[in-house]
Amino acid sequence: MTLGLINANPVVREKKIHIVRDIRDPEHPYSLEQLSVLSEDSITVDEKLARILITFTPTIQHCSMATVIGLCLRIKLKDCFPPHFKVDIKVAPGSHADEEAVNKQLNDKERIVAAMENPNLRQLVDECLYSSEL
Question: Rounded to two decimals, what is the model's pTM?
Answer without folding.
Answer: 0.84
